[in-house]
Amino acid sequence: MNIKKIAVIIGGAAIISGTLFAQAYSQDKSGGVYPNDFGSTSIDVSHYPPKMKMYYHLFLNKCSACHTIARPINSQFLQLTADEQAADKKTNPEMFKNPLVWQIGQKIWSRYVHKMMSKPGSNIRPSEGKKIFEFLVYDSKVRKTGANAEAWEANREKLLKSFKQNYPKDYARIFGTSSSAKKTASGASSAPASSPAQHS
Q1: pTM, whole model, 2 decimals?
Q2: Distance CA 13, CA 18 (A)
Q3: 67 contacts 58 by C-beta, under 8 angstroms
Q4: How far apart are CA 53 and CA 56, in angstroms?
Q5: Boundaries of every domain in the chain
Q6: Sign for the pseudo-dihedral over CA of 64, 66, 69, 72
Q7: What's the rounded Cα separation, in Å, for the pair 101 and 75?
Q8: CA of residue 178 relative to chain centroid, distance
Q9: What's the confidence (pLDDT) of residue 176?
Q10: Dihedrals φ, ψ of 104, to 5°?
Q11: Is 44 exposed, middle or buried (0-12, 13-18, 19+ CB in 10 A)?
C-alpha cells in the first residue's frame, strides 16, 4: 500500500470519527458526550424471548429521545441480585475488579430508569418504564456475563481507551484525572465506582 492510500485511509478515519463525535453531541440533550455514545447502536435480540423483543423496541423508541441509544446499550451497568453476585464472584471474579467495565449493583438499572423517567419530556409512563427496566436487566446479563463476559470486556475497554485518547478533556470530565481512573480506563487496574455511573 503506497503513502497516498495510507493518507486517504487515515484521513477518512479521522472524518468518520469527527462525524460520530458531532452526531453524539447533537443527539445528546443531557449535557455532554460519553464513551458509550461511540459504541453499538443496536442489539441482536433475535434469540431473546418474544416479550423481550417487544420491550427492546419500546426501549429504542423511548430512550433515544434524550440521548444516544448507544449510551445505555454500551453502559457498564449490570444489575444482579445478592445471590447472583455471590455466584459470579466464584465463577468470574474479574467482573468485580473494574467498575468502569462492569458496575454491579442490586438496583443499578432501577435507579437509572427512574432517573430517566423523571426528566422533563421523557414521556415514559410507569408501565413503560417497568418494561424498559426489565429489558435492561435481562439484556445486560445476557451480553455482559457468562460466555459473553470476555467479549463484553474487550468491547468496553476499547471504547474507554479510544475515548481517553481522542477526547481527553471529556474523559477527565467524566472519570476525573486520578491515576486509578486512568489505569482503569486502560484496563490496568480498578477504580471506585462513582459519578460516571450517573451518566455513562
Answers
A1: 0.76
A2: 9
A3: no
A4: 5
A5: 3-198
A6: negative
A7: 8
A8: 21
A9: 84
A10: -105, 135
A11: exposed
Q: Do the beta carbons of residue 145 and residue 138 sit within 8 Å?
A: no
Measured in whole angstroms, the distance separating CA 116 from the mean position of its chain's CA atoms is 15
pLDDT in tens, the chain (200 residues): 554 443 443 344 333 334 444 444 334 444 588 999 999 999 999 999 999 999 999 999 999 988 999 999 999 999 999 999 999 999 999 999 999 999 999 999 999 999 999 988 889 999 999 999 999 999 999 999 999 999 999 999 999 999 999 999 999 989 886 534 444 433 333 333 333 334 44
Give the DSSP per-residue string, the chain: --HHHHHHHHHHHHHHHHHHHHHHHHH--SSS--GGGGS-S----TTS-HHHHHHHHHHHHHHTTTS-THHHHT--EEE--HHHHHHHHHH-GGGGT-TTT-EEESSHHHHHHHHHHTSTT----HHHHHHHHHHHHHHHHHHHSGGGHHHHHHHHHHHHHHHHHH-HHHHHHHH-S-HHHHHHHTTSS-----GGGGT-
